[in-house]
From TrEMBL:
Species the sequence originates in: Haemonchus placei (Barber's pole worm)
Classification via InterPro entries: Gal_mutarotase_sf_dom (IPR011013), Glyco_hydro_38_C (IPR011682), Glycosyl_Hydrlase_38 (IPR050843)
GO biological process terms on file: mannose metabolic process
Domain of life of the native organism: Eukaryota
GO terms for cellular component: lysosome
Listed GO MF terms: alpha-mannosidase activity; carbohydrate binding
SUPFAM superfamilies named among the record's database cross-references: Galactose mutarotase-like (SSF74650)
Protein name as annotated: Glycosyl hydrolase family 38 C-terminal domain-containing protein
Domain Glycosyl hydrolase family 38 C-terminal residues, every copy: 4-107
Length: 119
C-alpha cells in the first residue's frame, strides 16, 4: 500500500491504486474514502446511434477497476499519478503547508475503438 502526506493530511491507497482513507493528523481521525470511475458504451446502430446530442447507453455502466501508480515525494509536494487506461488518468496532490487535497482528473481523448460516449 502507498501513502502520501503533509503536515495536516495522510492519504492511504489500496492494492487497486485507489484512495482508501484520509487521515486528519490534528484530530487523529481517519475517514474511509472511495472514488470510482465508470463509463458507458453507446448504442451503435443505423436507426438512432448514441452521439453528441443523444445519449443511448448500450448496457450498464462499466467500472474502471485498477490504476497503475507513479508516486512522487518531494520536499514541497507529494503526489500520486494514477493511470487507469490510455484515456483515464488522475493526479492526487498534497502540498506542504496547505490542507486542501488536489484532484486533477484527465479524461480523453477517447479512442474510437472504445465505442463509448459520455465516458
Amino acid at each position: 500500500m502507498v501513502t502520501i502526506e503533509n503536515e495536516d493530511i495522510s492519504l492511504l491507497f489500496d492494492e487497486n491504486g485507489l484512495v482508501s482513507s484520509i487521515t486528519e493528523k490534528a484530530s487523529n481521525k481517519t475517514y474511509p474514502f472511495r472514488q470510482q470511475f465508470f463509463y458507458y458504451k453507446g448504442v451503435m446502430n443505423d436507426t438512432q446511434p448514441s452521439g453528441a446530442y443523444v445519449f443511448r447507453p448500450d448496457g450498464d455502466a462499466i467500472k474502471v477497476e485498477k490504476a497503475q501508480l507513479e508516486v512522487i515525494k518531494g520536499d514541497l509536494v507529494q503526489e500520486v499519478r494514477q493511470t487507469f487506461n490510455s484515456w483515464i488518468a488522475q493526479v492526487i496532490r498534497l502540498k506542504k503547508g496547505t490542507k486542501p487535497i488536489e484532484f486533477d482528473w484527465i479524461i480523453g481523448p477517447i479512442p474510437k475503438e472504445a465505442k463509448c460516449v459520455r465516458c
